[in-house]
Amino acid sequence: MSNSKPGKVWLVGAGPGDPDLLTVKALRVIQNADLVLFDNLVSQEIRALFPKSVPAFYVGKCKDNHSIAQKDLNSLLVKKAAKGLNVVRIKGGDPFVFGRGGEELLTLIKAGVDAEVVPGITSASGCTTAAGIPLTHRGLAQGCTFVTAHAETELSVDWNALAQINHTLVFYMGVSRAEMIASNLLKAGLSAATPVAIIENGCRENQREVIGQIKDLVSLVANNNVQSPALIVVGEVVSLANDLNPELRAAVSAETLNQHVA
Ligand code: SAH
After folding, report:
1. What are the tens digits of pLDDT across the range 140-150?
2. Ligand 1 pocket mutation pick from 63, 121, 125, 172 by most atoms within 8 angstroms of CB
3. 154 vs 10 pLDDT, higher one
């Protein structure tokens, strides 16, 4: 590291949690970092890959508990890069999917700082795959929409459009908004029997899936004490989890195997 060499900020996507789902580029960038700034959604297994000799700071934003204000974080990134450091700003999933990556990149570009985004597997993709739910499937869903259930100010979502498009809906940050999501979709005409899955801690050791129907979304969340981070997936594709979920498949084959052995 030298003061004459300009620094660079890498906005890196960590994926949903499993370190094997980091991209090769993300790992390479992490290994070359002078400073790492990480979010709460970056799993412990991924934090364990940060170089031991390099300082790593938590700059996460849990709901109602922001360790550092976004504008202070933006100026920290600019300041550290100006000192010639190779800064890795690593976030859960993909930085450009509900990750404020665009805002950070705009600030860096305006400040004349060299910056690059390394995409990550967004949780909607990683978690549904781990639960055996294809986001699209011929005959069931010809498209997929990612929706945030939280907004800086007021949420502006066209529920009528979402309820009519007849494809997969994935809600990020939706656990505490289950009532709002279900009631708006039902009011807009979505069938009460539409399958839903709630995937908690997807792509991690403690992944849990709760499956049911949209009319029961609120009680599914409450009765199973679902905690963040969790995604809510709405659509007919959820029914495929019965056949495609890797754990269910393993259980079925073990059963079949036992029958053969017995
Ligand atoms: N940039 C991230 C999303 C950040 S918003 C991405 O691309 O995935 C935070 C929300 O993402 C959480 O509230 C939750 O809805 C979802 N999420 C992130 N990681 C998750 C995980 N491992 N399991 C389930 N949901 C997750």
Report:
1. 999 999 999 98
2. 172
3. 10
Sheet of 208-213, strand order: 144-148, 168-172, 230-234, 195-200, 208-213
Instruction: Give the pairing type, strands 208-213 and 195-200.
Output: antiparallel
Ligand 1 pocket, residues with Cβ under 6 angstroms: 16-17, 41, 91-94, 97-99, 122-123, 127, 172-173, 199, 201-204, 228-231
- Mean pLDDT lowest among 60-64, 76-80, 97-101, 225-229: 60-64
Q: Where in the chain is the domain with CATH 3.40.1010.10?
A: 8-121
Q: What are phi and psi of 203, to 5 degrees?
A: 65, 25
Question: Cα–Cα distance between 193 and 213 in angstroms, integer?
Answer: 5
CA distance 185 to 165: 12
Pairing of strands 35-38, 144-148: unpaired
Instruction: With H, G, I as helix, E, B as strand and everything else as coil, classify residue 105.
Output: helix
- Please give the CATH number for the structural domain made up of 8-121: 3.40.1010.10
How does pLDDT run across 20-37, given as a tens digit for each residue? 999 999 999 999 999 999
For the chain, the first-to-last Cα distance in angstroms comes to 65
